[in-house]
Amino acid sequence: MSRKFASQADLEEKAVSFERLSEHAYAYTAQGDPNTGIVIGDDAVLVIDTQATPVMAADVIRRIRTVTDQPIRYVVLSHYHAVRVLGASAYQAQHVIASRDTYDLIAERGAADMKSEIERFPRLFRAVESVPGLTWPNLVFERSLTLWLGTLEVRILQVGRGHTKGDTIVWLPQERILYSGDLVEFDATPYAGDAYFNDWPATLDALAAMQPEQLVPGRGAALKTPAAVAQGIAGTRSFIAELYAAVKRGAAAGKDLNAIYSEVVTELRPKYGHWVIFEHCLPFDVSRAYDEATQYRDPRIWTAERDQQLWAALQA
Ligand SMILES: [Zn+2]
């Protein structure tokens, strides 16, 4: 193998930022590593995505404690991916909230995904031995759930499929602040190995139609003006649409996955190659796009074995 598998060679720690977006909203970001959102109400704190391990989550909690001493009562999972959810136990929240589709994905493929993700990107699972097991939601909703943290309205919504089947966003209507999870990335390559390429652009259009004034993406810096929000949504949309169009073209011409992969990487690299984890994501993204363009409406489960087979095949 010419390159180390996935991101096993990515060892450089990123710098964390903890930013105040409004009286109630904060963003914990890390130069393209997975973000965490923080919403502080009148009487409780809500956290969106947990970091990958309880030890990593402890740094989020430490920063929350510099701005409030209210209890962290709610954790929202934007989707099921291990790197977002396995730190949940650190918060000792009363409620771990997820969509029904996310709950179903955890039940169906959470264990396989955990093993796959840890092997793909060990740096993102610092102190992985502190993970007690899968994170199980204890409050499951369909379509939408509204929480009032005192006078602050928090809307937890599933607006459509995209990054996964269960994608969930958190919307603060009074402040027009949106936490998008991995539906939107900024200066970071969208991972689409479990995606629905046909649905993702329309879901992004629905987010744009909400006219957020600020948006915290799944990866990358917080977007703090309407122009930056529009840029983040449009960039993600272009990447997904262009990748899928290129894969569909190759599939329609009867090309195999290896040939399509080479062509798509060459086509996308000039425009998107500087986004973090480009080389990491492309094999998985092209593979899923090829599946969706040919015979698999729903994403197949990634196992550690399937990951290795794909990586080896695409480098042959
Ligand atoms: Zn994800």
Provide an overview of this structure.
The protein has 316 residues and is an alpha/beta fold. The chain has eight helices and twelve strands. The strands form two sheets. Strands 1-2-3-4-5-6-7 form a seven-stranded mixed β-sheet. A five-stranded mixed β-sheet has the order 8-9-10-11-12, with helices on one face. It is globular. The structure holds zinc ion (ZN). Zinc ion binds next to loops.
Largest sheet, if any? 7 strands, mixed
Care to count the β-strands? 12
Binned, the helix content reads 25-40%
Associated small molecules = zinc ion
Report mean pLDDT, rounded to a whole number. Answer: 96
**CA-atom Rg in angstroms:** 19 Å
Percentage of residues in strands:
15-25%
As laid out across the biggest beta sheet, the strand order is: 1-2-3-4-5-6-7
Number of helices: 8
Element string (H = helix, E = strand): EEEEHEHEHEEEEEHEHHHH
Silhouette: globular
Spatial gap, N to C terminus: 8 Å
List key phrases describing it.
316 residues; single chain; alpha/beta; globular; 37% helix; seven-stranded mixed sheet; five-stranded mixed sheet; binds zinc ion
Concise summary:
With 316 residues, this protein is an alpha/beta fold. It has helices at 54-64, 82-85, 100-120, 200-209, 226-252, 257-272, 278-294, 304-314, and strands at 17-20, 25-30, 33-40, 45-48, 72-76, 95-99, 139-141, 144-149, 152-157, 169-172, 177-185, 214-219. A seven-stranded mixed beta sheet has the order 1-2-3-4-5-6-7. It has a five-stranded mixed beta sheet with strand order 8-9-10-11-12, covered by helices on one side.
